[in-house]
Structures are given as C-alpha cells and as structure tokens.
Design a protein that fits this description.
The protein has eight helices and five strands; from the N terminus they run H-H-E-H-E-E-H-E-H-H-E-H-H. By secondary structure, the chain is of the alpha+beta class. Among the domains are: about 90 residues, Alpha-Beta Plaits; about 60 residues. Helix 3 runs antiparallel to helix 4 and helix 5 packs antiparallel against helix 6.
Length: about 300
C-alpha cells in the first residue's frame, strides 16, 4: 500500500495549523470585551481619571482667578510731608479741623519748643478716598512744602489668600465638629477637641489679619513734620551756613553721650557684678592667709618670750 498520499495530507494539515497560529499571534487582542463587565470598565476609568483631574484643576484655577477679579483692590496708602508754616500752633489747629472734617483722627502728636518757635510732629489717619483732598488742604495751610512722598502697598493677593485659607479652616472646623459629635469614646473626643482648638485659633488669627488689612486699606496715614518759618530760615554768612556745622556737632555730641551712658550701664549691670563674684573668693582667701600669718607670728612671740 502506498502511504505517500497520507503523508502529504498530514503535512498539509500541519501547515494550515501553523499558518493559523501565526495569524492569530499577529492580530492584537482587544483591550476589553463588551460582553465582560469589569474588564470593559477599567479602561474607561483609566481614560477618564486624568480628564476629571484636569477639569478639577482648571475649575479651581478659574475660580481663584475669578475671585481675584471680584475682590476690590486693597491698597494701603501713606503720605509723608515736611512743611514750613508761619505759626505752628495755628497750623496744627487747622490740620486738626481738616482731619475731623474728613472723618479722620489723630494718632500721634509731638510738640518741641525752641527760641525761634515751636516744631510739631503729627500722624493722622483719614479715609483713603479723601487722601488727595487732605493733601490739597495741607498744602494750602503750608507756606512751603519741602518734602512730599506718597506711597501705596497692594495687599490684594495676601487678602485673597487669607480668604481661601479662611474657607479651608472653616470647612475643617465643621468636619471636626461632626467628628466630635460622632465620637464613641472620651479619648477620641478629646483628640478631636484638641485639633478643633488649634483650628479655631488659626481662624481667629486669620480673621485678625484680614481685619487689619481692611482697616489699613480703608484709612490712609499722613505723617507731618511742621517747622515754623523762623526756625526753618537758614543762617548764612558769606556763603557759610553754621547751622549745618552746629547740627553735625550736636549729633556727634549726642552720640558721644549715648556711648558713655551705654558704657556706664554695661559696667554697672554686667562688669561690676562679675568682678564682685570673682573678687569675693580672693578677698576671703586674702583675709584667711592674713589671719594665719598673724596667728603664727603670735605663737612665735609667745614661744620666744617663754624661752627667755
């Protein structure tokens, strides 16, 4: 019997199986099967999670940007003026009247008297929207404005950050209150209570800072150095101004006195006690040695007397 046809048929079948396996390995398997529940859901979750996180970040950024845009800008404004007036007391009275008229108040006042007149230092606070009006009024009172400086500090960013911090702290406080109500034992309740106390202290600090920024932005500060014209008039002899030399000499004298007083304080408070602590044992040792020497001399004299 001829077996060649059988061998040929077997070889053909093996070739068909090999080709089918190769084709199957070349075709990628599907990532999930629509009929299989769990495997089909996993790729969807992996694909959607980054998009949800991205949308959350974008939403938060937009919310913060909108919050910055919604908050009115908080600017702390300060002005510093050095003016010359004919009569210091009259000028101070007029500035007080102007401050009261604008709804402000005086926070500091110093008056120095010299032979040529009185010199004043004032610090006042007025509503920020009336700062320009106040400066115009002060210029009208003054005979001369020798120096004027107006500055502003924008604290809007800090204020918005404090608002965000306040919301976070208040939300944490609410959760802690809920946890404390649901606590099953005393130890857990005390632990939550300690945490709650800390959060409430941070809330009070944040509120205080926000209130300070609001009040500082609402009220501008004006610092005034008021000098009478007689005192401000320069002394000049042939191009030489002795008041400059006198001022420098006076400042040097003040510095020398300050150094001497500081040195005296250091000596009395630090050096003298330290020397006393160091010298006390030495003085005691000196008197002890002196007593021993005297005792020896007395014993020697007695011995010599007895021998004679």
């Amino acid at each position: 019997m001829n077996n060649r046809p059988m061998y040929a048929m077997g070889a053909a079948l093996l070739m068909i199986v090999a080709v089918g396996c190769a084709a199957k390995s070349a075709i990628p398997e599907p990532m999930w099967d629509e009929d299989a529940g769990a495997p089909a859901a996993m790729p969807t979750m992996v694909g959607e999670a980054p998009m949800e996180m991205e949308e959350s970040v974008v939403s938060e950024s937009r919310g913060q940007a909108g919050e910055y845009a919604a908050v009115e800008r908080l600017i702390i404004r300060n002005a510093n003026l050095q003016i010359v007036v004919r009569d210091t007391e009259s000028a101070v009275e007029q500035i007080d009247a102007l401050t009261a008229e604008l709804g402000g108040y005086l926070i500091e006042s110093n008056l120095s008297e010299y032979r040529e007149g009185k010199q004043a230092f004032l610090k006042i606070r007025i509503p920020a929207e009336d700062l320009n009006q106040a400066l115009d009024g002060i210029r009208e009172i003054a005979e001369e404005v020798r120096r004027e400086n107006v500055s502003g500090e924008d604290v809007t960013d800090e204020y918005v950050d404090l608002q965000s911090r306040m919301r976070h702290l208040e939300a944490t406080e609410e959760r802690l209150l809920t946890f404390m109500e649901e606590a099953e034992d005393t130890e857990a309740a005390l632990e939550v209570y300690d945490r709650l106390q800390n959060i409430q202290a941070q809330i009070e600090q944040t509120k205080g800072r926000m209130q300070y920024l609001e009040e500082s932005a609402a009220m501008a500060t004006i610092t005034l150095n008021i000098t009478p014209s007689e005192l401000a008039r320069p002394i000049e002899v042939g191009g030489w101004r002795p008041q400059g030399t006198l001022r420098d000499a006076f400042e040097s004298l003040i510095k020398v006195f300050q150094f001497l007083v500081d040195a005296l304080i250091v000596i009395l408070v630090l050096v003298v006690p330290v020397l006393g602590v160091i010298a006390l044992p030495l003085v005691g040792l000196f008197f002890l040695i002196r007593a021993l020497v005297r005792r020896r001399r007395g014993a020697k004299k007695k011995k010599d007397t007895a021998a004679n």
